Amino acid sequence: MVEGLLAARRRYGPDGAAVFGGGGLTNEKSYLLGKFARLALGTRHIDYNGRFCMASAAAAGNAAFGVDRGLPFPVTDLADADAVLLAGANVAETMPPLMRHLVRPDLIVIDPRRTATAARAALHLQPAPGTDSALALGLLHLAVVDGEVDTTYVRERTHGFDAAWRRAVSWWPERVEEVTGVAVGDQRAAVRMLGAAKNAYVLTGRGVEQHSNGVDTVGAFINLSLALGLPGRAGSGFGCLTGQGNGQGGREHGQKSDQLPGYRSVVDQADREHVARVWGVAPDSLPGAGRSAYELLDSLGTADGPKALLVFGSNPVVSAPHARHVAERLAALDLLVVADFVPSETARMADVVLPVTQWAEEEGTVTNLEGRVLRRRRLRRSPRHVRTDLEVLRGLAVALGEPAERYPDDPREVFDELRRASRGGRADYSGISYDRLDSGAALHWPCPGSDHFGTPRMFLDGFAHSDGRARFVAVDHTPPGEEPDSEYPLHVTTGRVLAQYQSGAQTRRIAELNDAAPEAVVEVHPDTARRAGLRDDDLAVISSRRGKTLARVRVVATMRQDTVFLPFHFPDQHSANLVTNPALDPHSRIPEFKVGAARIGPCGEGAG
Ligand SMILES: Nc1nc2c(c(=O)[nH]1)N[C@H]1C(S)=C(S)[C@@H](COP(=O)(O)OP(=O)(O)OC[C@H]3O[C@@H](n4cnc5c(=O)[nH]c(N)nc54)[C@H](O)[C@@H]3O)O[C@H]1N2
Ligand SMILES: Nc1nc2c(c(=O)[nH]1)N[C@H]1C(S)=C(S)[C@@H](COP(=O)(O)OP(=O)(O)OC[C@H]3O[C@@H](n4cnc5c(=O)[nH]c(N)nc54)[C@H](O)[C@@H]3O)O[C@H]1N2
Ligand SMILES: [Mo]
């Protein structure tokens, strides 16, 4: 590995090597991985799978509120609300424990599918995939004309309403119905429910975030919540439901190509100076911003792309869009190193696999969806000679010529350094310690001092912009990257099912041991299936401009006729990402996992 990394550096410079991380890594690993990339490799190319997840919501939240923390309030607050709007989130399957906080509120669910979550809603709006920004603009339009706007709040706590309204003014309900398929009466009912609620929340999931207009779409929902006066008011609010075990912390400590620890900016001089001081290096020696996750993968092994890649905590061969192309790029590398504890599809392609310890075998912290830092404790010993990710990073760094003391491998020591690096930053962890967490304290960042009790509820006294006000963003609806046409007449959308987790490498390992492989399915409306010559349980081929994938038909009467749904948990010829569109949002570089043009048909004998 070291020879390969040094060769890449010699021939192509420090950017000849790159790092790909994951939001499942602990805070300590995320932090050390970012430091390793920028100091030991000296590369600007480090990014992670959060870019595939909620990067658009983070960008929209930062623009509107001055800082983004997925949920700026504890989940338990939801239980007392009168109404909750869930836009593109299927929490009954993806976060089942959250459902217990959603018993009392009236639920409004926006999802092209009638999910388990939608089935429990008081109102289900079922738009065509990729039309949410039109729907959100329409809901804002109705809130204004039906007199549901909190004008005092808008005047005292926000800026930019007029510009946002100028865009929404042309999204009258009939036009919105035509674009989205959501009936005018249902639009009105949603606004009435939110307007009548004394306390309400608007929450977004991947369904509205993973789009080539993801930032604008989330911005349109934030605008709606601001018009109703929800964010920063006790008992109400706006939030994004982050997904992975450390979906929050994973992005706050420097795995994202444009961020340094403490949610600092890699291009801000004061931010660079602070982090460089903690790391004991000159600010100028820190590299600048690198490529975003998909752009990084897309460039591997090309003339100006990295020739060596280290992967920690992701399985991009299955989870990245346009997966066949990504596999080709990985195959073009001089050196691929994968650290994992199961033989993932990406690990199977690697020149070197590092079999690291797994969560039950190590100490650390993660930050949950409400910004609360949780201790993860070791439950069992690891097999002998298996190293932790921290030990791997330290060993590699030293072999690359770095001083050992720069890479502590004791999680507590790493966390203490992370606290110093985050001090004064937007995500300030400096007051959070293992001792405080172990004594049972519930600490949400920002927590700027050892005597500070953390911040479970943000924005109550003001938003994080210098004038304390939130910003409406002037957004319009733009259509998705691909619309159905005669060749590819359907929308294909993707997501999750309850019984599978992520790219599935771990579930498959368990299934392998039990001799029971899970099978890929595609959800199809009965009429769509009939027209395509398909019956329930048939093997179907779903194709798009990127390629094709195979899945068993599940006929679902509540599907939209123009849409099929593929869970993304399956590998090889069953991967949903063989058909997904890698079109990127211009502001956040999140890919368009949630909509593309496709067709479906029977899979001929022996095909695939
Ligand atoms: N069981 C299970 N739970 C998980 C995971 C898992 O893999 N399995 N993964 C975790 C992770 S990393 C994440 S990020 C979260 C994700 O949690 P969710 O966001 O709830 O998950 P998804 O299924 O990706 O997307 C949610 C819904 O978006 C809908 N959708 C698709 N296209 C559109 C659209 O254009 N507009 C709208 N409004 N909705 C659309 C889909 O039909 C789907 O029901 O789940 C976490 N929890
Ligand atoms: N079509 C489509 N594609 C999607 C999505 C979608 O909705 N539709 N969702 C996207 C989203 S939201 C996400 S988050 C990604 C998730 O997809 P991936 O980024 O591939 O994440 P995982 O499948 O969780 O893979 C994590 C890998 O890291 C390993 N791992 C876990 N913990 C550790 C650790 O501590 N150290 C090391 N070294 N390895 C570890 C696991 O064993 C596993 O093999 O997929 C994205 N892809
Ligand atoms: Mo995610």
TrEMBL record:
Keyword Signal: no
EC number(s) given by UniProt: 1.7.99.4
Residue ranges of domain Molybdopterin oxidoreductase in the record: 8-397
CDD domains (UniProt xref): MopB_CT_Fdh-Nap-like (cd00508)
Enzyme class: oxidoreductase
Taxonomic source organism: Saccharopolyspora erythraea (strain ATCC 11635 / DSM 40517 / JCM 4748 / NBRC 13426 / NCIMB 8594 / NRRL 2338)
PANTHER family given in the database record: NADH-QUINONE OXIDOREDUCTASE SUBUNIT G, RESPIRATORY NITRATE REDUCTASE
Keywords: Iron, Iron-sulfur, Metal-binding, Oxidoreductase
Any single Gene Ontology cellular-component annotation: membrane
Protein name listed in UniProt: Assimilatory nitrate reductase catalytic subunit
InterPro entries: Asp_de-COase-like_dom_sf (IPR009010), MoPterin_dinucl-bd_dom (IPR006657), Mopterin_OxRdtase (IPR006656), Prok_molybdopt-oxidoreductase (IPR050123)
